[in-house]
Amino acid sequence: MQTPGIDHHSGINLGVPPVTYGQGDRPPRGNYAAARPDYTCDQDWAAYTEQDHDLYRRLYERQAAQLPELACEEFIEAVQQLGAHDRIPRFDELSERLYRRTRWEVVAVPGLIPEEAFFKLLAERRFPVTHWIRRPEEFDYVVEPDVFHDLFGHVPLLFNPVFADYMQAYGEGGLKASRLDACELLARLYWYTVEFGLIRTPQGVRAYGAGILSSAGELRYSVRSPQPSRVPFGVERIMRTRYKIDTYQATYFVIDSFQQLFDATAPDFAPIYAAVRAQPPIEAGTVLPDETRIPPAAA
Ligand code: PHE
Ligand code: CO
């Protein structure tokens, strides 16, 4: 096997090792050899085909149609900031708008990147966005995050000042968790908030997590289905809870506001990691005896 990221003609390291998801029997799609040491690369906007742009437009339209009844207000308001949706946005133009609002930028990456590199970028208020788009036959489901998931799912809330600060704090917290060997616990917090979080509103629960907002089917399921458990957000509770990567979630955690999320995660996690490690994990789907189930939103 070739060493990834090494140019075998010159022997010069041109990039970084690729990162795979799950069992890793599929080769990663991105060109990691073209990435810089911090894992960022060029978006190469001119390389997108008409088919790529068309696919983005169709994905965008399918999700946008569901937002009014299923997404939180903050997301609906901010999604317009992504700009024209008939083409894949140019990251440089988007970054300019974003920087003016919250001092965040988006940067291109070849795909999934290692934890440390990811945390570092977040701590610097640079959000890594995969630059390639899924294949047309993956319209309904794609295993690895692509440009649609990363942009449509994650970038709108970076325009929200409180959420933007939470993401930076998470990056700093990640660097600290690496030193404390607690990345697995911290990853659960990311999963159940940034990716699959629900928020309480006067109209019932609504989605703010990128994984559900960019999903064709899970968006409605997470907000409306009577099947999954919905329980109040809690840092320790989340860190104890396992999650599913290959089906819809069995549990969603519900926050009251982004300020609650920011404030609840501000304390030092070192003692919390220790407390979590001393307790057994909780399986996805479990509702604890002292917890109140939060009902799905009414249609
Ligand atoms: N307060 C956390 C710590 O001390 C850092 C953090 C903030 C983690 C926000 C996640 C989200 O580790
Ligand atoms: Co994501």
Automatic annotation (TrEMBL):
The EC number(s) this enzyme carries: 1.14.16.1
Family annotation (SUPFAM superfamilies): Aromatic aminoacid monoxygenases, catalytic and oligomerization domains
Any single GO BP term: L-phenylalanine catabolic process
GO MF annotation list: iron ion binding; phenylalanine 4-monooxygenase activity
Catalytic activity as recorded in UniProt: (6R)-L-erythro-5,6,7,8-tetrahydrobiopterin + L-phenylalanine + O2 = (4aS,6R)-4a-hydroxy-L-erythro-5,6,7,8-tetrahydrobiopterin + L-tyrosine
Gene3D superfamilies reported for this sequence: Aromatic amino acid hydroxylase
Biased composition (Basic and acidic residues): 1-10
Enzyme class: oxidoreductase
Binding-site residues, Fe cation: H149, H154, E195
Keywords: Iron, Metal-binding, Monooxygenase, Oxidoreductase, Phenylalanine catabolism
Residues of the Biopterin-dependent aromatic amino acid hydroxylase family profile domain: 1-299
Pathway(s) annotated for this protein in UniProt: Amino-acid degradation; L-phenylalanine degradation; acetoacetate and fumarate from L-phenylalanine: step 1/6
Keyword Iron appears in the UniProt entry: yes
Chain intervals for the UniProt region annotation (Disordered): 1-35
Cofactor: Fe(2+)
Family under the similarity heading: Belongs to the biopterin-dependent aromatic amino acid hydroxylase family.
Record protein name field: Phenylalanine-4-hydroxylase
